[in-house]
Predict the structure of TIR domain-containing protein.
Amino acid sequence: MYKAYKVDIDSKYLGVDQAIIEKMKLKNRPKQSIKNFFNDDGSLDGNNIISEWFPQEKFDIFLSHSHADEHIAYMLANFLEENFGLRCFVDSSVWGYADKILKEVDEEFCKKKDDKGKITYSYEKRNITTSHIHNMLSVSIAGMMDQCECLFFLNTENSLIKKENIKTLMEGETYSPWLYYELSMCLFLEKIIPKRFAERGMSVESMTMDEARADSVRPVARYFIQTEYMTILSGQDLNNWISGSGSRSGRKGIQCLDWIYKYRPMYFPERKIL
């Protein structure tokens, strides 16, 4: 990862085109059932499940967003691909839903009968299965973020809680454990300077000078997430990007991000060494 930006746009800016949304969803091919991934000893082949449900592909931008803003993420991904040829990772358009595979695993491993003969689920076993699936997803997310050059965080009221709603709220809190995880990883992952800058003979110093899911259930916990270091990208910035990046002349691809890096620079905070 090299840079991270906070996209602060009105939901009406990109509109809602259901045909585009359905097209994005179709990119996610059907996943095989877990019944295809059992080992001889009755355990599941975790590595093969990860390869099938959470495959690692090459993307340019990781779109971090609330599940409730999925339609905005789809429209933004389409906007960036159409205008700049940038491949954007939206998890639900590439990966299978973790809750779906977890349901399959629970059906296989966690069912039991209570004293009255009613089928229910073992709480203890569900803790174990949830840990396995969530760990698979967490590792896959970290891998995808690490190979993407840039992160765009959709800054909406679905992502961060409105301060006026809760008196004790800190600025930048969320109910989403996955947003908390992704934006925490954004700070922890190694920052890698793209090779194309080195190929142009640009040193780190010269580059620096040049750049001068909403759930229906009651929330379980709140998390503070750091986003103040991210430069905001507004709708006007996106318009300027189209005009200034050269995309209208036919140039597309990863180098289109260079315009953002130069005219909307951002810097990660220095990590404190204990």
